[in-house]
Design brief:
Elements: E1 9-13, H1 21-25, E2 37-39, E3 45-51, E4 54-63, E5 68-74, H2 78-83, H3 85-88, H4 103-111, H5 123-132, H6 138-152, E6 154-155, E7 166-167, H7 171-174, H8 179-184, H9 189-200, H10 202-207, H11 213-220, H12 228-239, H13 252-261, H14 267-274, H15 283-290
Antiparallel strand pairs: 1-5, 2-3, 3-4, 4-5, 6-7
Helix pairs in contact: 4-15, 5-9, 5-12, 11-12
Length: 316
């Protein structure tokens, strides 16, 4: 026995490139204690996922010697997640037409030749955590997400429960959470109001997947509390959009500027600098991150808040 209990539904996929399963899936991990994401002692990745067909537990294991990816899934959404496995791992992504244009980017690309952008096809799964990450430190955001999932989510089906794996709360649950409970999870009124609002229109938002990332962003930005940064985070994960850039992030512009010019950028400078890479601008900060390049962190850091609500003007 391998500890997975019932075998569930199984799938073997043979990608036509050496697929780096772990690094592709890591984009969907929300902090070190993400209850919807686990990596076990054998290096296999587990995810708890809410699909259009219901919750699912997904187990993915790379077998590079065979050129295969082995996956199992349990729950009502098992078939759905297995059908989407190639897209999740980057089968629909292509670097064709991307020119590094800079020695740092060329070197990063050389060291990460098999990097791909995966797509989940799930909008709410990316949107809710992105809202919780607005305007706060990662520590505060990830803690709030953990509390939200543990208090209002559900155990992942099959052996996911044994792995302490959870699935995010359903929109019907999110929209019933009272305001004081959000505050107990250290989520201020602005962010909780945005989550409840998107939960009320979740069905129509999920249908936006059919119209592509640009139109999906247009629709999202009609909702109060959803801005450019949040939409980019959704576009990256839901659509695998290579042109999505997290403008408004606390680090991205500064790190890209420092890595490629020696001088940190602000958002306006980053946008102008990235224009030659359109429609694949997002690959530039991604390559900088893959290379592990970031400006020295000598300045003051954004501190976790000790009271709520607070007024912070940063990414939305």
């Amino acid at each position: 026995m391998d500890g997975t209990g019932s075998t569930g539904e199984q799938r073997v996929w043979r990608p036509d490139w050496p697929c780096p399963v772990g690094s592709v899936m890591r984009l969907h991990k929300r902090g070190g204690g993400d209850p919807t994401y686990r990596v076990d002692e054998a290096g296999r990745t587990w995810r708890g996922i809410r699909t259009p067909e219901g919750p699912a537990t997904l187990l993915v294991e790379a077998r590079p010697a065979l050129g295969e990816v082995h996956a199992r899934a349990w729950g009502p959404g098992a078939t759905w997640v297995l059908d989407g496995l190639p897209a999740l791992l980057g089968a629909e992504d292509s670097w064709e037409g991307f020119e590094p244009r800079h020695p740092v980017l060329a070197e990063a690309r050389k060291h990460h030749p098999h990097a791909r952008l995966g797509r989940t096809g799930l909008l709410m799964e990316a949107l809710v955590p992105a809202i919780l990450e607005q305007k706060v430190t990662g520590q505060e955001a990830f803690a709030g997400f953990r509390m939200l999932v543990h208090r209002y989510g559900e155990r992942a089906p099959g052996p996911g429960a044994e792995r302490r794996l959870w699935v995010q709360p359903a929109p019907t649950v999110l929209r019933r959470i009272p305001s004081w409970e959000w505050l107990r999870m250290h989520v201020d009124h602005a962010r909780s109001r945005a989550v409840v609002t998107v939960a009320r229109v979740a069905d129509s938002l999920e249908r936006a997947i059919e119209v592509g990332p640009v139109e999906a962003e247009r629709r999202l930005r009609t909702i109060p509390g959803i801005g450019r940064w949040t939409c980019a985070e959704v576009r990256q994960r839901t659509f695998g959009d290579p042109d999505a850039v997290s403008f408004g992030d606390y680090h991205v512009a500064k790190d890209v500027g420092w890595a490629l010019t020696g001088t940190p950028f602000d958002d306006a400078e980053l946008e102008a600098y990235l224009e030659p890479w359109r429609p694949q601008r997002g690959r530039v900060p991604a390559l900088v991150a893959m290379a592990g390049l970031h400006r020295p962190r000598h300045g003051a850091r954004m501190a976790p808040r000790t009271h709520l609500p607070a007024s912070v003007t940063r990414r939305v």
